[in-house]
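Figure 2 data, in text form.
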Amino acid sequence: MSVGAWEPEQPNPTQPEIDRERLQRFIASVATGQIQLEKLSEEDRTASQLIRLPAQHWLEESEHWEAEEIWQLIRFFTLAEAQLPGWDAAAESAVIPLARALRRRQQPLSKEQLLWIRQHSDNRYLPYGPL
């Protein structure tokens, strides 16, 4: 009988790193309530893999942002999913861990914010994920 050696799982090389400058551009692009595509470069518009990063990545990243900035990122990802091709994420949406991060801070989404998400998205998993 032979025993194999255990190899630790290697990180997924295709997963992009979270770039805070890009996230700042995302926040700026929703300042008016709609995504202003002219504020996004082609590279930013095609960075749809970010919305589907594992929840733990977003929970860790949210520690570097103020609650209002997290709300703006939630707005961006909600609108991106609805308006940009290839950004649909269903239960993998970054909105879900970002909303969880706000709840952990004792600053959950308000009723108005929840209604805004519902008005701008047809993703049934937003903002709290699958039951």
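Caption note: The chain is about 45% helix and 0% strand.
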